[in-house]
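Narrative of accomplishments. A recurring question from our advisory board has been how the design workflow behaves on a single, concrete structure rather than in aggregate. To address it, we present the structure tokens for one chain from the evaluation set, followed by the sequence designed for it. No filtering or post-editing was applied between the two.
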């Protein structure tokens, strides 16, 4: 066995110089401190994205977009294809867990101030990946073409229409017309299986490259500690093996959820029936949807919902640009304002989501 391994290693070495990779892996170290557990959520997000790609490809073998074929093809996958129900359930659950994991990863980076110089580009690319993940969820939600997905998409896309000037063009761009129709389904299908994966893969590649170039973020005051109090773990194999162990745990959790709570297929969408009572967006949009309910019908010359949507847009932009308004970034000093803002955002999301779920 050892001889075969040596021959294989020599064959690869003749074609690809592995020495720089080995040297890099041997030198790369990960700091160990109380909050270092949060490092692993980046890897969990990556693992769930891989699950999404694999299960998505399997589903594409049978899925047929179109008002007359989408729901029937999903039902065929669930009822007729061997383990089709399991693959679809894993795909749906992993999509939700991936978005949750990306949220956790983003907030852990935020609270550890890992967005500070020289890691600003890592923060920007990570924020874009979060938006793309939510775009995956929104575009994929319509593809089964069931009643819940149809009317939830109708409600979700209609929010864009409240914006002044740009509202109607954005609505028609999203829906590929005035109403949610077969054209909308086709457009969302193209976004979900082609455009978003291509953009996501490019940004993800850049994000991972930046993480490797900059190394793992060290907590505030870490370098000022005596050398004997600073503990490091080799990235390879120690950190990688722990990452893989967590991936295995996540895979087991995903399998339990998929088997114990299989994703429902629902009923085929009918544009001519009334919307079911209590239609709500997916949980990661619920806090925004619930917040918009509290705005009055009119705020001056503008609709209340339009003001709310614009405020969320400004808030998202400020969150994206947090490395620029963290004024203490150059000195690396603590900034309690940043921490309090982050805590407020988390409580805001949890509270409004909880109210929206009732």
């Amino acid at each position: 066995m050892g001889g075969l391994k040596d021959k294989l290693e020599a064959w690869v070495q003749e074609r690809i110089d592995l020495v720089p990779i080995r040297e890099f892996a041997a030198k790369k170290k990960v700091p160990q401190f109380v909050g270092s557990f949060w490092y692993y959520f980046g890897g969990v997000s990556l693992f769930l994205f891989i699950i999404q790609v694999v299960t998505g490809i399997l589903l594409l073998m049978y899925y047929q977009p179109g008002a007359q074929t989408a729901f029937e093809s999903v039902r065929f996958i669930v009822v007729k294809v061997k383990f089709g129900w399991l693959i679809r359930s894993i795909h749906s659950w992993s999509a939700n867990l991936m978005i949750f994991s990306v949220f956790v990863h983003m907030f852990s980076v935020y609270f550890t101030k890992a967005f500070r110089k020289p890691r600003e580009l890592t923060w920007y690319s990570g924020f874009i990946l979060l938006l793309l993940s939510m775009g995956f969820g929104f575009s994929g939600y319509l593809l089964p073409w069931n009643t819940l997905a149809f009317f939830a998409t109708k409600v979700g896309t209609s929010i864009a229409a409240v914006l002044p000037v740009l509202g109607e063009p954005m609505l028609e761009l999203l829906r590929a017309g005035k109403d949610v129709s077969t054209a909308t389904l086709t457009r969302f299908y193209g976004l979900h299986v082609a455009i978003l994966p291509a953009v996501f893969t490019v940004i993800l590649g850049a994000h991972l490259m930046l993480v490797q170039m900059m190394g793992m973020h060290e907590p505030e005051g870490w370098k000022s500690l005596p050398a004997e109090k600073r503990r490091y773990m080799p990235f390879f194999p120690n950190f990688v093996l722990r990452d893989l162990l967590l991936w295995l745990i996540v895979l087991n959790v995903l399998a339990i959820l998929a088997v114990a709570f299989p994703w429902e297929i629902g009923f085929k969408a009918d544009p001519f029936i009334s919307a079911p009572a209590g239609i709500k967006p997916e949980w990661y949009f619920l806090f925004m949807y619930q917040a918009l309910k509290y705005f009055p019908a009119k705020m001056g010359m503008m609709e209340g919902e339009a003001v709310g949507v614009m405020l969320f847009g400004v808030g998202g932009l400020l969150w994206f640009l947090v490395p620029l308004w963290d004024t203490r970034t150059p000195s690396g000093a603590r900034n309690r304002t940043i921490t309090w803002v982050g805590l407020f955002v988390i409580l805001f999301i949890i509270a409004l989501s909880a109210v929206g779920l009732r």
